[in-house]
Amino acid sequence: MLFNSIDFAIFLPVFFILYWFTTNKNLKLQNTLIVIASYIFYGWWDWRFLSLIFFSTIVDYLVGIQLSTQENQLKRKVYLGTSIVINIGFLGFFKYYNFFLDTFVTSFSFFGIELNSNSLNIILPVGISFYTFQTLSYTIDVYKRKLEPTKDFVSFSAFVSFFPQLVAGPIERASNLLPQLLKKRSFDYDNAVCGLTQIVWGLFKKVVIADSCALIVNSIFDDYMSYSGSTLLLGAFLFAFQIYGDFSGYSDIAIGTSRLFGFKLMRNFAFPYFSRDIAEFWRRWHISLSTWFRDYLYIPLGGSRGSIILKLRNTFIIFLVSGFWHGANWTFIVWGALNAVFFIPLLLTKNNRNHIDIVAKDRLFPSLKEVFLMLSTFTLTVFAWIFFRSESLSMAFGYFDTMLSPTLFSIPYVFNVGMKKAIIAILSIALLIGIEWFGRRNETPIYLSQKPNWIKWFILFVFGLAIFLFGERQQDFIYFQF
Amino acid sequence: MRKFIIHISLLCITLSGTVLYIFSLADGYSDTIYTKISSPKQSNLILGTSKAVQGIDPEVLSKAFNKKFYNFSIDLRTSSFGEIYYNAVKQKLDTTSGTNNIFIITIDPWAISSRTTHPNDSLNFRETKSALNKGIDINSNPNFKYLLTCFENKYINLLFKDRTAFLHRNGWLEVNLKEDSISVERRTRHTLNGYTKSMNDYKYSSIRYSYLLKTINFLNKHGKVYLFRLPVHPKMLKIENTILPDFDTTIGSAISLSAGYWDMNTINHNLKFIDGVHLNIASCKEFSNSIAEHIKMNRKQ
């Protein structure tokens, strides 16, 4: 089920009523309702893949219990290994089987050996990368004795399948979400209104900003050879906002929806395009994934300790794996590698933690130096996004080739999608930047908790109407494919 | 909780009221379909694709025959001949209007061809994704279901109208574009390039043709059917003849079912196009008159 669909607009109030009015006196019943609703939410897309979620749930539930009772280190490792093999096995099969097969065959053909390959027509289960990492974090934390496993199967199932963040994150940690499922939730008016505001803001980012940009971006990327360099640069620029609006919009809707039901999910985006260097960007972009890799891959590998060679190795590994996590395509791997290349100079010169606070924290406007740093960081990310958006490496290189030609200095042409649509896309980006800039000191840019109720509801009305008037019709979220 | 429910209900009511008000503003400026699917049943129909929707003005015909005509042509991706358009025509026709009606069907190679890999793969015909295949009542005014589920523009267009095109209540699409020679030349080049690029994708579809025959048979029960091949720019004609070289022979059975067939490309009307395919307003009026004359002559014989 898509957040930006009529189905969800009906599903959410029905769930809200059942959650707060029918099951609120019985925690177990309420958690059972969460599981049922989550399975309906996921099954709306393809019910057959519910079995995968259910199987992962059973495996990790049982492994968690065994890990808590087992003292033998070898056996504990076997249990952990079982969980990792099964979860990563599913992910590997559904997401990467054809990629590895094709790469294998291509590698052999490079040496003149032709192999017959039988690619499988595999449907990628929506959200598999997200819930796989979520359940893995549980098992690893229990293995490291950072977390007590739960014996409550229903609550654990609700943790694995919690519908607001099931298919595109934030990738929750058991240590944050599970305790919330194990205690009674109470309704809080202010929290619910803030949640609703976050949902509406997320929807605005998705259907107005991202989907408006998508029209232009798709027309440029699909026929990039026909456009001038300046148009291609504009296409890449707009894609940066498309993916940000799309993905952070999803996260906002997920977090806002959870707040309606008394849950607090982790923050996933913290105004990444105001970053002053790539290190800061990665602390602000897809936080739940980057911290997952930091905690479960980078630190176990040694992190930034050790020799320069080790630091370089660990950094490259984390960025390459992060790229590969996004999709079975060399473009994502190069995207990851490129970010590593941007990051490594900061790491080696120990400048990777220069910018911890938000830019111009105590000022209204940034200094010229800060503007320059933000623009240069943004430019680097835009260049990297070209690989992310391209369907193949040859397309990405072709895109760069045309973009960096003398036509880069011509006037871009974007009006083939219609003047009005192009203007809406550009104005909505300007609005996004403005709202985020003035709200950057808060967790969400539209922070209304101190405001009178009528202002809160008026703002909800204005954004609701803007979504209706300027929104594009129901389009998939980009991160569903990951 | 009670306070929240009351407040959110008020918000929903206010938003819904605003949405309904905005929907009530939908008219011929909203898009090129809305008034077609929000008009009542009709008796004398003009069928075809975008060439016909811009090229035949029902008002001219109404004056000539003293009958109310309705242009139910839409565009190639919606109203190519097939099951979906056939069913829409059945819905649109007022079957109680007697048997003395006049039906004008415009035909060309595009409308009986398909871009699908297999030309008879009707499950994947482009119109399967169109508003005509969404189960909406095409005679309902206002048509909220269409606006909610099929409207392809942003709803802001209902408030701020784009004055370039206006779909009249009689189904004629009036398009006002710059008509200086440079603009027309640029549009013609662009349109013809587009059709040249896609011409190899189009293949004659026997299923589409069978639905053309079904449509004629159905309409024959309620009046007389006249077939017209609309004029196009010479370069466009060349493209059309590449897709279906023996067009007149191919549609032989359709011609024999009809009361008359005219290939208007053979008649030099000195007509002007806005883009090589669609007639401009003055030529549309002239051409509509010409159609009326042809039908009148035929009826006298």
Short description:
Chain A has about 475 residues and is mostly helical. Helices cover about 70% and strands about 0% of the residues of chain A. In chain A, helix 6 (about 155-160) crosses helix 7 (about 175-180), helix 12 packs antiparallel against helix 13 (about 330-350) and helix 13 (about 330-350) packs antiparallel against helix 14.
Please describe what this structure looks like.
The complex is a heterodimer of chains A (482) and B (301). Chain A is an all-alpha fold and 482 residues long. Chain A folds into 2 domains: 6-184, no CATH class; 190-276 and 355-481, no CATH class. Chain A is built from 17 helices and no strands. Chain A has helices at 6-22, 27-46, 50-69, 73-110, 128-143, 153-161, 174-182, 189-222, 229-260, 278-284, 287-301, 308-326, 330-348, 368-389, 393-403, 419-438, 453-470. In chain A, helix 9 (229-260) crosses helix 14. The two termini of chain A are 16 Å apart. Chain B is α/β, with parallel strands linked by helices. Chain B has a single domain, classed as Rossmann fold, CATH 3.40.50. Classes of the chains: A mainly alpha (482), B alpha/beta (301). Chain A binds chain B through residues 20, 187, 189, 192-193, 196, 420-421, 424, 453, 457, 460-461, 464-465, 468-473, and chain B through 1, 3-4, 7-8, 10-11, 14-15, 18-19, 22, 151-152, 154-157, 159, 162. Chain B: This is SGNH/GDSL hydrolase family protein. Chain A: InterPro entries: Ac/AlaTfrase_AlgI/DltB, AlgI, MB_O-acyltransferase, MBOAT_fam. Chain A: Belongs to the membrane-bound acyltransferase family. Chain A: The chain crosses the membrane at residues 6-22, 51-67, 79-99, 119-140, 224-244, 332-349, 370-388, 394-415, 422-439, 454-471. Chain A: It holds the Pfam family MBOAT. Chain A: This is MBOAT family protein.
